[in-house]
Amino acid sequence: MLDDAGRRLLRHLLDAPETPVAELARRAGMTPATAARRIERLRADGVLRGQHAVIDWRALGYSVGVSLRFTLDKTDPRAFDEFQAAARKVPEVIEMQTFLGRVDVRLALVARDMAHYQEVYRARILTLPHIADIEALMHISSIKSTRALPV
Question: Rounded to whole angstroms, what are the CA distances from 29 to 19, 65, 149?
Fold first, then answer.
C-alpha cells in the first residue's frame, strides 16, 4: 500500500501535521508537487481523515481525568443506543468507546476539580440509562499517548 517514500512522508506528517507541504517534501526527500499529490491520495484513500488540534485540558483548568467503565443492562435491545445518545450530551465526556467483553462502554471524562467531578458524576453520569455496573479509574499520568502507527 505504501512505498518507502510514502511511509517517510506519513511519518513526518504524523510527527508534525502543521508542517507546510514544502517542508514535509524536503524531509521526505521528494518534490513539493509529489508530496502534495501523495497527501491528497492518502486523503482520498481514507488513510488521512483530517488534522486535529491536541488540547491540554489541564492548561484550560481541568485537573481531574477519569475513565469510567460501564457494564450495561442488556435486557433492553435499545440499551447501547440509548446509553450512547445520553452520554454524548454530557459536555465533560471527551471520549466514548465500546467493547466486547465484561466492559461494554468506556467514557473518558474531565472535570475542573473533585467537586466538579462529583457534581457531574451524580447529576449526569448516574442518570445515564441502562447502567448495571460502573468502575471509575482516576487518571494520574499519561505515559504514552499516540495515534501514530509503526510505518
Answer: 15, 41, 21
Q: How far apart are the first and last CA of the chain?
A: 11
Q: Compute the radius of gyration of the chain from its Cα atoms.
A: 20
pLDDT (tens digit per residue) in 10-45: 999 988 888 999 999 999 999 999 999 999 999 999
Rounded Cα distance, 59 and 54, in Å: 12
Task: For residues 62 and 126, state if they share a domain.
Answer: yes
Same domain, 14 and 71: no
Cβ neighbours of residue 10 closer than 8 Å, sequence gap 6 or more: 2, 42, 47, 151
Helix, coil or strand: residue 137: strand
Closest CA to 105 of 125, 75, 123, 122: 125
Q: Are residues 105 and 129 in the same domain?
A: yes
pTM of the model: 0.76
Quickly tell me which residue has 491536541 as its cell: 54
CATH code where residue 14 lies: 1.10.10
